[in-house]
Here is the input.
Amino acid sequence: MPASADTLYSSNGPFGGWFGLWGADVSTSQSVAQRFTCAIDADLSTASFWIMNNSSQPGARITVTVETDSGAGSASRPSGTAIESWTMDTMASGWNPVQQTVTSTLRPQLRAGTKYWFVLRSEAPGGSSPVWNFASSGQGYTCLTLPNGATWQSSGLSAGLCMGVTGTPSSPADLDHDGDVDGGDLGILLTTWGSCAGCVGDLNGDGQVDGADLGALLTAWSAGA
Here is the structure.
């Protein structure tokens, strides 16, 4: 496995923009999400966010999830299917942003060209909630929940939220995410053999784990991970 992670997504920081420091409240009545797409297949390493606080007291709990895209027609929004999740306590006091980072332990594989979302949620009330900073410049696909706090509005290209994502390049055939395509991956593929839509061994996404997937794994094996 490579010693250092590559940048998969990076926004600008929150400082120096025309509007000063601003952001989206993360509270009981509003969850906030930012979409990103990887240019390469990679195992997730870290994600970082610039967070400030509507309260002068740090500590409000934030739940972070990385989710798949809804894929519902042209509407792009978080699907609610979490690939991995974390909790972190707000470190900022007032509107003095702090960059906070979560580290992946599951190392899920992110596929090139696939849309993913990082979603921030909190049970803090609006007047004392964390605030996810918008970037000083640049756009991104962002999404907020409607006032009911549960239903996502349609996403759109707007001011980007401050977020960075890193990962280590991988092969889709590296099913156990150890940096090699070898007997361990072959064993995983064989245990999911047959009709198995969405299974990790379904390398070509056709709803079957079969000879085509085995051939793809063996090609990656001979070429190296």
The mean pLDDT is 90. The helical segments are 183-191, 211-223. The chain has two helices and 14 strands. The longest helix spans residues 211-223.
